[in-house]
Amino acid sequence: MLTGGGYRPSTSRRLGMELFSILGWLLCGRRFTDPTSGFMALDARAVRFLAERMPDDYPDVNVLVQLVRAGFSIVEVPVEMQPRRSGQSMTSGFGALRYVSRMLYYLGQLHLEGNSQRLPAAPLGEPLAERQVPPRRVLLANPPTGLFIREDRCQTPVEGISATLRFPIDLAYMAASARDLGCRAYIKDYPAEGLGGDAFETDLRQLEPQCLIVSTTSPTLEKDLQYCRLAKQARPEITTVIKGAQVARQAEAILRETPWIDVVLRDGYEVSAGQVAAGVPLDEVKGISFRRSGRIVENESLPPLLPDDLPFPARELTRNELYLRPDTGTPQTTIQAAWGCPFSCIYCLAPIVSGKKLLTRSPASVVEEVRECVEVHGIREFYFRADTFTLNRDWVMRLCRAIEESGLKISWGCNSRVDTVDLPLLQAMHRAGCWIVGFGVESGSDEMLRRIGKGTTVAQARRAIELCRQAGMKAYAFFMIGFPWETDYTAAQTLRLIKTIGADFIEISIPVPFPGTKLAELVEESGLREAELLDHHHARPVFHPYRMSRSRVMALWKKGYLGFYSRPSQVIRILRGMDSPRHLGNYLRRGGSFFLRIPRLKL
User: Fold this and answer.
1) What pairing do the DSSP bridges indicate for beta strands 295-298 and 359-360?
2) Is residue 302 classed as helix, strand or coil in its secondary structure?
């Protein structure tokens, strides 16, 4: 066995290492080897203890996790190394813990008990991650099953005047998590790249992934699952993992009915996906469901995320030029600024997926990610994603000040809620680069707004749109037609509001009874369902209202769009907002293709 080569630590360091041994014995269930030898032996539980407590800027501690999981029972590391930063004390157990973490950056050799292996020495400062055993490979994919916005609360086809293909932030977060655990991650957005099934099969052969993680939507779920099946047939040893709002709520059923799926990510996918990809024993990964020996295991949920602890999405692994702002045609990316929604809209997945507690990133963290996008990736257009961006007014004001003080010249948009804005807030957002705000207006009937649990009024919606205009920004209004209580009268109220509210752009959706929502319970209990979720489309209803047919709902949807965008006043308004022929061309191309499709849409 390799020893410390005659090294004898000083009295103070020996005391520190002895305290480290005692702490490890108490917390990790075993005592480390003789600290006077100059080496510390870390077992699996000790390594996990280290990994969970080390600061984010010392990620190489995770390499030890992988070595232990690869079959090495004990990993011995030398302790007499130059610490990464000066002034580190070894006179306490926690000081020793931190010291081991920093020391990993300068580790030149390991002794692996039970399966001895010496890693080549590296130049001072080279991360151990560059010299570890071959990394596990993970393919994170949007399968070639259609161009959809694959966000948990937004699962719509990418078609329309202002609908745009969004950066796959879920894949990028999961890839970053896997990368930081030592994996080699590959992101493939097949629909965005215009690639089909042949490209998927080619990647399976060439990349040889040990793990496949697929982002799903309700309308593409069946096809998404078939691509997972294809992967399992091509590579029987691959771990197949799926995420998505629908599968998270039906994890047990999915695993029971699709034996080729190994893992379902239920919550906290930003964390759990990387752990699964890195080969962490599945029973230790919180927030997942999986199959073991023919039975379904549902692990406990993850605790609430600590947003600032997440790594930035791995944009270096994506083709950022594919995701464009609809009017300018310039690259645009998504930044997750906050999670959580405390409201109780009966149709919305946000509280189910993100929780009801608002979790915000620090303004400094958001600005740091923006700076990375600008300086590294050349992106200056952003969608600040949050379930309700303006829910915490003070946080928004601090973020806007931080953006202004950074000197970064960017443009961005966000979503909001009509009862959470005021003129000073919107003006501050505009000064910080915000050019458009989206509002969920939903209905022109106050009674309908009450029934669906929205908690807002038509008057508040009108005021919010007007305040946007006063602040110098564009307003994007979202409406819904086809709730169970919809009548010709309430629909007429909504169509009237669409024309008179003064929004620059609109989007009309038909409610979808996603599993876990109160709307889904109501539809099932009332026997209103006429089609499966797999058949739903933003203009193809799954259920019929009490006093209206599905075909009537679709007709009203078409009428709402055509009635808004075909008005001469709206055409003039859009033309006035164009500042270049390119902008005009983008709108004509996108809008023209959308309106050509409207008459062809059928149940």
Assistant:
1) unpaired
2) coil
* Strand-pair category, 411-416 with 137-142: unpaired
What values do phi and psi take at 178, rounded to 5?
-65, -40
Confidence label for 131 from pLDDT (cuts 50, 70 and 90):
very low
Give the C-alpha separation, 389 to 70, whole Å: 43
Backbone angles phi, psi at 74, to 5 degrees: -140, 140
Q: How far apart are CA 590 and CA 572, in angstroms?
A: 17
Give the SS3 label for residue 49.
helix
Cα 169–chain centre separation:
5
Q: Which residues contact 192 (CB under 8 A, 6 or more apart)?
A: 142, 147, 165, 168, 319, 322, 323
Both tokens of 582, joined, read 């390119």
Element (H, E) at 186: strand 184-189
Percent of the chain with pLDDT over 90: 59
Domains of the chain plus CATH, in order, are: 11-113 (no CATH), 137-298 (3.40.50), 326-598 (3.20.20.70)
pLDDT recorded at residue 123: 33
Distance CA 347, CA 344 (A): 9
> Model confidence over 489-500: pLDDT tens digits?
999 999 999 999
In a 3-state reduction of DSSP, which class is residue 189? strand
- Give the SS3 label for residue 542: coil
Q: What is the DSSP letter of 104?
A: G
Order of all β-strands in the sheet with 295-298: 184-189, 137-142, 211-215, 239-243, 263-265, 288-292, 295-298
Residue with tokens 């059923």: 253
Instruction: Please tell me the predicted confidence (pLDDT) of residue 532.
Output: 76
Alpha carbon of residue 127 to chain centroid: 28
**Chain-centre distance for alpha carbon 580:** 34
- Of 116-125, 214-223, 567-576, which has the strongest mean pLDDT? 214-223
User: Per residue, what are the HEC states of 368-381?
Assistant: HHHHHHHHHHCCCE
What distance in Å separates the CA atoms of residue 133 and residue 57, rounded to the nearest whole number? 21
Taking the complete model, does pTM exceed 0.90, yes or no? Answer: no
- Interacting residues of 322 by C-beta distance below 8 A, sequence separation 6+: 165, 189, 192, 193
CA quadruple 131, 135, 141, 144: dihedral sign: positive
